[in-house]
Specification:
single chain; 170 residues; alpha+beta; Sufe protein. Chain: A; three-stranded antiparallel beta sheet; 49% helix
């Protein structure tokens, strides 16, 4: 069986080959992880937040995944620098991320969803750790958060099963 390469545009390929803001941020205010066990993509976002203004001063990521995963994570870090957490929450969507990188093959839209899900989980996690969610944040998880959470729960379940199987084998 042969595999046909996906038709990534030049911007996706450039961000894949030369990602912006790649690497761990040691002085991050908050860190969030999201993953998709179905395709193997994993993202960790590191955000440095000004505690007085709630502005994202720095954003970096680590990724294990395909070109679309790396490109969407990279562009998200560029899009959110200098934004408040509220503006980030309301203005950054997976559709805008996909548009910003010039589009993705339809089978790779989930990469944008995963990136935004990880970002929104980081913001929710930040507020939960600092006194509770603001009035503008919905009580229910967003579509992107739900996707990231489902994928994380599936990864945890699979990991437990594998661990259980390893313990059983001689």
């Amino acid at each position: 069986m042969s595999r046909i390469p996906l038709p990534y545009n030049p911007k996706v390929m450039e961000l894949f080959r030369n990602p912006k803001n790649l690497g761990k941020l040691d002085d991050a205010t908050i860190v969030a992880v999201a993953g998709n066990p179905a395709c193997g993509d994993m993202i960790t976002f590191y955000l440095k937040i000004n505690e007085q203004t709630y502005v994202i001063e720095k954003a970096q990521f680590e990724s294990y995944g395909c070109a679309a995963n790396i490109a969407t994570s990279s562009i998200v870090t560029e899009m959110i620098k200098g934004l408040t957490l509220k503006a980030t929450w309301t203005d950054i969507t997976w559709q805008k991320v996909t548009e910003e990188i010039g589009g993705l093959p339809s089978v790779k839209f989930h990469c944008g969803v995963l990136a935004v899900g990880a970002l929104k989980r980081a913001i929710r996690k930040y507020f939960n750790a600092h006194g509770g969610e603001p009035a503008w944040m919905p009580k229910e998880n967003t579509f992107e958060e739900k996707q990231a959470l489902e994928e994380e729960e599936l990864a945890n379940t699979l990991s437990k099963r594998l661990k259980s199987e390893e313990e059983k084998s001689p």
